[in-house]
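Please go through this protein, sequence plus structure tokens, and consider how the sequence yields the tokens. Keep your notes short.
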Amino acid sequence: MRSANLSLVLRRLRDEGPRSRARLATELGLTRSAVSALVGELEDRGLVRRGGVERGGLGRPGTAVELDGGAVCGIGAEVNVNHVATMALDLAGDVVAEHRLDLDANRLAVDEVLDRLAELVLTTDAEVRATGRTTVGCVVGVAGLLDRTHEVLTVGPNLHWKNVPVGAGLRARLGGEYPVTIDNESNLAAVAEATPGDAARQDILVIFGEVGMGGGIVVDGRPLRGHQGYAGEFGHMIVEPGGRRCGCGRVGCWETVAGMRALLDAAADPDDPVRDPDLSLADRLAEINRRAELGDARTLAALDQLGSWIGVGAAMLANALNPAAIVLSGYYAELGDHLRPAIAEQLLAGVLAPQAGGTRVEFSTLGFTAAVRGGATVALEAVFDDPTVVAPRSDALTGGTR
């Protein structure tokens, strides 16, 4: 019961922001003395601290309580086709450390890619510890179908990986006791978009585009993974029967008309510098945006075609799930202003319900950090679920143990 009440207080502060002890007592249905004791314990664990003065209520102003980011961090990590990356977030949601290493996972052996990722995780963890914080967990996102029970990447069409034991491989490199969890990178990107306390961001779909295309479903603020954890593989819906063959081996997948390859094929000749495989994704998108801003007809036509195909698939998903919002993340967000009109047109035309069933189209502001940010957020859930996983600071002073 104590752990559950500590969790209630901590989640309320995360979801609703700083508030006084009196206000917490009223909102949570607890006595003021109980809330004061709970806040005192959370303070001792370094999870909350005193904030400013809360005004606006009846009676004397009270001192607000707020999340304290000084004690713990969660680390998010990602394996994708053209990079590995990490990010550490503290409990208050602030970035403590961040790293990204560009590489071509298709040209490297699996072991070498995992070596590079493990090095980034260890570097990030060392930076967290150098600030006096503790890492409570690391959640790693991988691109492809993931067997979460066994932490095996069953199929990674764009990575060209099959039946890779990612979890076991990373633990062998980080040490068997290191707190690692493996998840799908698009699911983690979806978690990062579900803003706590924002009712309009609790039931959303996230469509994530990079080299490939994936997505995630968030219901009541939590990811919906499906019966065996394979939900969200939007990129492999068949939208063009008889179309181009996909990296998964099938024909006409959404990814074949809305992925990066489709955009480049439409926008540039094979020898165009924008298609140089050594060009970073950021530089490639910057050049496409530059050409669009200059009014290049071929680029604008390619972006309009891309937006139309995104809208076709988005309408299918909106008909099936009627989310509050469809959030376009990854490289789609970088091109958002040029894609929006065609997406909106197809969504209105393709959704049966009036005005697209109220589904909004939004573009992520997280760039290519969504998956690692989501991983760090999921890692920190262990603390919000049970704050007693963090040792009281008084134990260190008295020599006690948890």
User: Anything to note?
Assistant: The chain has a mean pLDDT of 91.
